Amino acid sequence: MPAPLPQLQPGDAYNPDCPTRHILDRIGDKWAVLVLLTLKDGPVRFNLLRRRIGAISQKMLSQTLKSLERDGLVSRAAFPTVPVTVEYALTPLADGLIGLLDDITRWAEAHVGDIMAARRAHDAMAARRAHDAEAHGRQAAARAYG
């Protein structure tokens, strides 16, 4: 019989209703991180933001910006031009987070070679296992029908 799950307490990140978990989910989203890092050098208009990030759809960028605005990490300023100009910027609340994201970026850049080597080794091992399992299956079939 499996062990019972621990009792969840308020503030426990394992509790799906924990506010900390919701915040970690937000800042752990790849698009949110890319938007925040793109905005760290100052306000950016929507289309330029989209071009700088690349590979993000207009809909996904819009949803990400709205979520970050709702969380108080990004501000939106509209200017009365034709058409309306909209700029997005980081809020003071996001300043401390940017430092942490910069640290993570530096760590990733310093270790990307190690991670890629680990991936290649893992993929090669998985391919060998698949090949060995296939060969074993052929041998077993040959014995059974041989």
Automatic annotation (TrEMBL):
Keyword Transcription among record annotations: yes
Keywords carried by this UniProt record: DNA-binding, Transcription, Transcription regulation
Keyword check for Metal-binding: no
GO molecular function: DNA binding
Protein name, as recorded: DNA-binding HxlR family transcriptional regulator
Coiled coil: none
All residue ranges annotated as the HTH hxlR-type domain in the record: 18-116
InterPro entries reported in the protein's UniProt record: HTH_HxlR, WH-like_DNA-bd_sf, WH_DNA-bd_sf
UniProt superkingdom: Bacteria
Entry-linked Pfam families: HxlR
SUPFAM superfamilies: Winged helix' DNA-binding domain
